[in-house]
Design a protein that fits this description.
mainly beta, seven-stranded mixed beta sheet, 0% helix
Length: 115
Amino acid sequence: QVQLVESGGGLVQAGGSLRLSCAASGSIIRFDAMGWYRQAPGKQRELVAASTRGGTTNYADSVKGRFTISRVYAKNTLYLQMNSLKPEDTAVYYCNAGEPGYNYWGQGTQVTVSS
């Protein structure tokens, strides 16, 4: 079992930046796929950004050019750098890591962007 703990959320004005961190209790090199999801009130959870062990990244159209996903293996941490934040980015952000037969989720961190 691996635990994922997100941090870095908070309240920010539109146009501002935040960096989310997802610290794993074990090595993240075991995970081919890792990603960030978000869920706004009354909406379904959606994929924001994903990365593979080989370095491929994918982003939701709504965040392309503004968000960057990255991994630091030495720290067993996944990051999400969020720039030019918009009120519609307000949501709870969740870290996800997948391996065959199991998906791990963090507890989530709230991001609120004021207009």
